Amino acid sequence: MATFVDHVTLHLRAGNGGNGCVSVKREKFKPLAGPDGGNGGHGGDIVLVSDTGVTTLLGFHRAPHRSSENGGFGMGDHRSGTNGELLELTVPVGTVVKSEDGTELIDMVEPGMRFVAAEGGIGGLGNAALSSTKRKAPGFALLGTPGWQGDVLLELKVVADIALVGYPSAGKSSLVAALSAAKPKIADYPFTTLHPNLGVVESGSTRYTIADVPGLIEGASEGKGLGLEFLRHVERCSALLHVLDCATLDPGRDPLTDLDVILAELEAYPVPEGQLPLLERPQLIALNKVDVPDGRELADFVTPELEKRGYKVFEISAVSHEGLRNLSFALAEIVETSRAEIAARPAPPRLVMRPRAVNEKPFVIRVEGGTYGNVYRILGQKPERWVVQTDFNNEEAVGYLADRLNTIGVEDALFKAGAQAGSTVVIGPEGGIVFDWEPTLTSTAELMTSARGTDPRLIKNDRPTRNQRREEYFERMDAKAEARAELQRERAAGIWTDDEGFLVKEGDDEA
């Protein structure tokens, strides 16, 4: 069973906002005392919090699906719905949060950092909040918006001062156990270490952490072995300690060859932008296993060559603890120097939150070609949210949506884009609301006197115009004249006479 996980995909679903309430207060002698529908509650957010007490992402590996509470529905008597409870997820310090497409969202390198990974939905307003002096009794309320739903990637990069790198079975885990109180798994076969091991070392007044990175082999930067999975844990270290095996029995291997292979892999590994390349950081050499006679002889042979390259070399034994004290103090000196350099750096620029410009439009209109003509797509945070909040089964709510869109200039922008009456308009991205646009001359929802829950603008007006009434009158008069002429022709033909009850005016008889 896995005990250390440094890469996981979280499936998050933030809480939905509650719907607003439509209610009218009813009291004795006041059957309609005014709207009193409450607002819906907001959905709960999902927040990631960095914590030094957490060292692995194992909990998310076992339970990757997380969701927060929904907001409650609004109720009558001005009672608002309850807000969904906030869900906090603790992650290790050094966790990088990325979007589903790999874009880095935040690097949580300090304890106590908070990041809203999934934002809860907004509660809808009740009819009490929508009422005004002109709209005294709204027959509708706004719906709650859904919370954010999607995937985020968590990638853990160990935060340590010193990184121990080297071939498998070079003795890195044994060195961590000898320098600190950590108890990593130690065995006499390669790739014993399957995850980084952290240890805390105290040298005099200096306290620092060391990380045992799993063994690297040739081609690790290209994905061979386990190197590519764990090389990222070296990114945050201030210095590198190369642990070279002086008692290896593998043919074709020696400390100098091993060092050249590791250096090539470290050079090929790309670090994030803004960080110092791995080979430009301080590096020390630890020739391990000098307690073996052949190991000490080989260490004495390669030490001059390594010092000639500019490295500071220490001959050590993780078993007998030989040379560990000098190595520990040398590492502490490097850590103190690195910390002093970091403290002397100028503070990073502060994030400045700037309000949206006054002249910035809240939406854009994109003209798209279609089979039956152009399609006008409206994209913007406000229009898209308003559409989600609208109950399309309520005509008055649809009219309120039209008024809101007209307020921010949607109709004028459609005219400028070339839209005409009957043009197809879509609000939102793929899968948005589609309707045939019917332009209005003015916004009159506040002056309507129709029944609650209805909007006369959506009712088809069949009242004929004056020209239509005139044409209908002339057609009716012509039909009557034609009928009289037909009766006269039938009388002349002898089909009927005056005695049958048909009254003929004087002068209408034929000569």
Quick structural overview:
By secondary structure, this protein is an alpha/beta fold.
- Radius of gyration based on Cα positions: 40 Å
Distance separating the two termini: 121 Å
Describe the sheet with the most strands: 6 strands, mixed
Strand content: 15-25%
Helix content estimate: 25-40%
Question: What is the tally of helical segments?
Answer: 11
How are helices and strands ordered from N to C? EEHEEEEEHEEHEEHEHEHEHEEHHHEEH
Which segments are poorly predicted (pLDDT under 50) over 5 or more consecutive residues? 185-194, 219-228, 443-447, 506-511
What's the total number of strands?
Answer: 18
CATH homologous superfamily caption of the largest domain: P-loop containing nucleotide triphosphate hydrolases
Number of domains: 4
The CATH architecture assignment of the largest domain turns out to be 3-Layer(aba) Sandwich
Describe this structure in words.
The chain has about 500 residues and is of the alpha/beta class. The protein folds into four domains: about 5-155, GTP1/OBG domain (Spo0b-associated Gtp-binding Protein, Chain: A), CATH 2.70.210; about 160-345, Rossmann fold; about 365-460, GMP Synthetase, Chain A, domain 3, CATH 3.30.300; about 465-500. About 25% of the residues lie in helices and about 20% in strands. It has eleven helices and 18 strands. The protein has helices at about 60, 125-130, 170-180, 225-230, 255-270, 295-310, 325-345, 380-390, 395-405, 410-415, 465-490; strands at about 5-15, 45-50, 65, 85-90, 95-100, 105-110, 115-120, 150-155, 160-165, 195-205, 205-210, 240-245, 285-290, 310-315, 365-370, 375-380, 425, 435. The chain has a six-stranded mixed beta sheet with strand order 10-11-9-12-13-14, sandwiched between helices. Strand 13, helix 6 and strand 14 form a beta-alpha-beta unit. The radius of gyration is 40 Å and the shape is elongated. The termini are far apart. Its EC number is 3.6.5.-. Its main location: cytoplasm.
